[in-house]
Amino acid sequence: MTERKPLTRSKIGVLMGGQSSEREVSLKTGEAVHRSLVRSGYDAVPIDVGPGLSRTLEKQGIEIGFLALHGPGGEDGAIQGFLETLGIPYTGSGVRASALGMHKVVTKTELAAQGIPVPKGTVVLRGTAPSLGRLLATCSLKLPVVVKPASQGSTIGVTIVRRPSQWKEALRVAHRYDEEAMVETFIPGHEVTVSILGGADGAVTGLPAVEIVAPDGFYDFSAKYEKGRTQYLCPAPLPAALTRQIRQLAIRTYQALGCSGAARVDFRITPKGKPFVLEINTVPGMTETSLLPMAAGKAGLSYDALTERILQSALQRAGVGSFRTVR
């Protein structure tokens, strides 16, 4: 317990778990965040989100929601809108930015309109089965391509299709999680991520970039969450000019979607040094292997200081619109 005065005396509910395919990761994030808030002197309780959430929040007397929910229901604007109807301020991005950021196709459309480089691709709806050859010809794509659900995280349902024989199964896997499967050109090279922090004064900070060196070059679910499988280089060993470029692209992505609080922008960088934005995560993981805390630590921000910085986004929201004042 710290002697430093907390930013608020309001009761904080750390919302975690939920029913998405990322439930287990969300629980780990939430537990870590809860421990951090308690260490820093906040009145915080863990809440596993499920049916009856409204009653739970009322019974617990929750005045602020710290969102540690990943995937559909947590990052797509649903829980954000729910909390707004209850007048409870929450951390991170609002309804619109969360919805835009969660849907990869909408994200890419918005970013492309603003001149931010994204991989070329298309969408295949569930129930349709275009031949791979026709799709590649029509969309000017070539193998390998990446097939992924339009609204999932943690690389769930993602397949790199290198041979025509993998095509139908890749679509089936992606459509298991979403009606829309996004098909995009595979970008060879490096995988790099840049975390962003919004400040109470409106300033936006880009944290040190992290290069991800995954086994077999594919940063899938097990590579993300099984300790020791993946190597992380922070700061990423990139030329200074490229580091500045991707930081600016990450900030532009964050601002284009109207994000607030913390977010993480994922890139692929070609061997010739050309970056492409893959997606944005508006509720970045906060587990022991998560990239946001790693980048923050390299910038001199401890885990507890990072948690408090994210909490500020809820305190800022507390004075906006119909939200009640936070004590």
DSSP summary, beta strand count: 13
The radius of gyration is 20 Å
Order of helices and strands: EHEHEHHHEHEEHEEEEHEHEEHH
Q: Which regions are unreliable across 5 or more consecutive residues at pLDDT < 50?
A: 320-325
Distance between the termini: 20 Å
Sum up the overall morphology in one term.
globular
Largest sheet at a glance? 6 strands, antiparallel
Plain-language structure description:
It is a single chain. With 327 residues, the chain is α+β, with helices and mostly antiparallel strands. 35% of the residues lie in helices and 21% in strands. It has eleven helices and 13 strands. The protein has helices spanning 23-39, 53-60, 78-86, 95-102, 104-113, 132-138, 167-177, 221-225, 240-256, 291-298, 303-317; strands at 12-17, 44-49, 64-67, 121-125, 145-149, 159-161, 180-185, 190-198, 204-206, 210-213, 231-233, 262-269, 275-281. Strands 8, 9, 10, 11, 12 and 13 form a six-stranded antiparallel β-sheet that branches. It has a four-stranded antiparallel β-sheet with strand order 4-7-5-6. β12 and β13 form a beta hairpin. α1 (23-39) crosses α11 (303-317). The longest helix has 17 residues, at 23-39.
